[in-house]
Amino acid sequence: MTTFRAARPLKGTAITAFAILVCHVILSVGYAAVRARRRANPSGLWADTDLRLATVALGLVIVMPLLLWIGMRIMGEKGNYALVIGGSLAWLFGAGYNLSYIKYPPGTHLPVSLLVALVAVGGLLSLDNVAHRLTGHTSS
Known about the structure:
By secondary structure, this protein is mainly alpha-helical.
């Protein structure tokens, strides 16, 4: 599929925003379930460990690179190494560092400035010249 190269950063921005939304929902719902389990069994010290581990694994590590890669492939773009690796690492460190915003108080979210910065990083990593310089591959 031939596409305009100017549309690639827009596609990367849209896919990154969608992936961040999905991962943020996973983290919010997962930690809400952890809080509910903690309320149901306050004396169980390790009662919520499995749910916490699944929430962190899915919300921070597994889902983000899959959504970025699958989304860009659906949009017809190849050579998305920089977006998938860079966007996933940015999400891992950005959201992982600010996880306390979601973990403890119910009904809260990650800082909006962080989410906007992560979407901008996704758009920048989608540029052809950035991807080529970082990976040495050209997208075709």
